Amino acid sequence: MRILILSSQKELFEGIPKGLDVHLLAMNQLDLLQGEYRMAYIDQMDKDCKSQCRNTLKELKAIADIPWGVIDFKRKLKDPLELIFHGWADYLCGKDLLKRFTAARLQDVLYFHENKQPIPLKKQHILEGTPSGENWEKVQEDHEYIFGMLYVEAVPDKNMEAQLGERGIEQLQKEWQKLLQDFFDPWFGYNWINNGWASVILFPFNGKKLHAIEAAMEFYLNSPIFRYPSYTHNLKYRQVLHLSKTLYRNSDNTSNIISEALNDLFHMGLYHAVEGNFYLTDPAMIYLPESLHNIVEESRDFEGHIIHNFKLPY
């Protein structure tokens, strides 16, 4: 998918995700246009798209009759929907907008622009790769598979260190890690990567049903009953369930794994998830039974991922 961006400030676009076929041209270089593009964007700082949104779009479509979007690093447009009402296909804003400039988003934008209807959930994210299977029997080291990945992090209160001391905290963390493994074991969950209070539980995925959803929901709904003999307070925690592909190695050999999925998951857990909450990403949401969709409280875009927040049904 070839994407055109018109901007005279090429240095602002150095962080475009790899793998996208993006061509940058200044407004005075339009004579250099070659080949066909699937979509195009214009830098709002290069042309006032708000005050001339109809005329500007008409001029651009005369250059290339494809869907056009607006990029607005400084959030200058007070009413972005005005652009959509006048025929623009997309609006990206903010200093971190390039993180949301992904192939998945572009496909969604094009689908909505061309069909004028909501994106079917099951069409939003089609994962390419090898499912890891019903269990762990066929999973081999140094092979890439699709897994269910659950980020779980305990958030102890501020008085813990004073109450337990360093050794007490280390012991409590060991109890916490053991609890996670014991709890998720019936669903073939594997406490794969852990660091103190944070863990990534890996679940096999057979390509049809994501058992990790049942496991994570069970943990979420029953979380208030977990107590620890060496600590007088309940631990609060946050969860994010993701479905993606990653290279697999045993838990004692994960330090050198380069995985975009793991990096994204840790970012979602550390910088988006709030203690006491449970989240699903779009790829995982596809496998949530429709009868449970009514407990989705809100959905937000975080670094190119749509994340769904759940609420307790009581």
Question: What does this molecule look like?
Answer:
- Helix content is 27%, strand content 25%.
- It has 8 helices and 12 strands.
- The strands form 2 sheets. It has a 7-stranded mixed β-sheet. The protein has a 5-stranded parallel β-sheet with strand order 2-1-3-4-5, sandwiched between helices.
- It has 2 domains: 2-119, Rossmann fold; 143-310, Alpha-Beta Plaits.
- The chain has helices at 53-63, 81-85, 103-115, 121-124, 160-184, 211-222, 260-271, 282-285; strands at residues 2-6, 21-25, 39-43, 68-72, 90-93, 143-155, 190-195, 198-204, 236-248, 278-281, 296-302, 305-310.
- The protein is an alpha/beta fold and 314 residues long.
List descriptors.
314 residues; Rossmann fold; 2 domains; five-stranded parallel beta sheet
Describe what is shown at a glance.
The chain contains 8 helices and 12 strands. It is an alpha/beta fold.
Query: Hey, roughly how much beta strand do the residues contain?
Result: 25-35%
The neighbouring-strand order within the major sheet is: 7-8-6-9-10-12-11
Overall shape: elongated
Query: Helix fraction?
Result: 25-40%
Distance between the termini: 46 Å
CATH architecture of the largest domain: 2-Layer Sandwich
Fill in the CATH topology of the largest domain.
Alpha-Beta Plaits
Number of domains: 2
Give the rounded overall mean pLDDT: 81
Low-confidence runs of at least 5 consecutive residues: none
Helix count, DSSP H or I runs of 4 or more residues: 8
